[in-house]
Amino acid sequence: MVETVGSEAVAAALDSAWRNQKHGLKRDLRVMVQVNTSTEESKAGCDIESCQTIVQHILKNCDHLKFSGLMAIGALENSLRCQQDPNFHNPDFEVLCELKEKLCHEYDLSKDQIDLSMGMTADMESAILSGSTNIRVGTAIFGSREDSIYSNNVEAGPAVLSV
Questions:
Q1: DSSP result, the chain
Q2: Are 68 and 30 in contact (CB under 8 A)?
Q3: What is the pTM for the complete model shown?
Q4: How far is 19 from 62, CA to CA, in rounded Å?
Q5: Spatial distance between the Cα atoms of 83 and 123, rounded to a whole number of angstroms
Q6: For residue 80, which of 117, 48, 109, 119 has the smallest C-alpha distance?
Q7: Which residue has the higher pLDDT, 161 or 85?
Q8: Going by DSSP bridges, is the β-strand pair 115-120/65-72 parallel, antiparallel, or unpaired?
Q9: Residue 107 banded pLDDT, cuts 50, 70, 90
């Protein structure tokens, strides 16, 4: 699964590469659209307004991709506030949940057809309560980036927990 599709161009490139791959896999590549819910310039992903257009492009034009859900890495301050206040409703999670509802309605998809990848080690409880189905828990496994033995290893990506 690729969780970082943030544009139609990336979707089209993945679709083409998957079609041309030589590994004999017959199934479609599962993808999630990455949404920049916090609107921070330092974060990747499409803007909230473009999400529906990208999903439509995947569903209608990418025969080798299977739209599987939405992913966001929200604002750090929201994640930290979730740790401090269990009653805090993370606005990044709320945006992704609202987008899921819109997509279900617009494309006649059941809620079970759209996963949400939101939350990390710091805010995983809040993310699960908000409806997350995938959580990145690399810090819980490897420690913080500064403390990790993997901090200089670019091959060590985030660990993902599917719930």
A1: -EEEE-SHHHHHHHHHHHHH-SS---SPEEEEEEB-TT--TTS-SB-GGGHHHHHHHHHHH-TTEEEEEEEE---HHHHHHHHH-TT---HHHHHHHHHHHHHHHHHT--GGG-EEEEEEGGGHHHHHHHT-SEEE-HHHHH--TTT-TTTT-TT----EEE-
A2: yes
A3: 0.84
A4: 10
A5: 6
A6: 119
A7: 85
A8: parallel
A9: very high
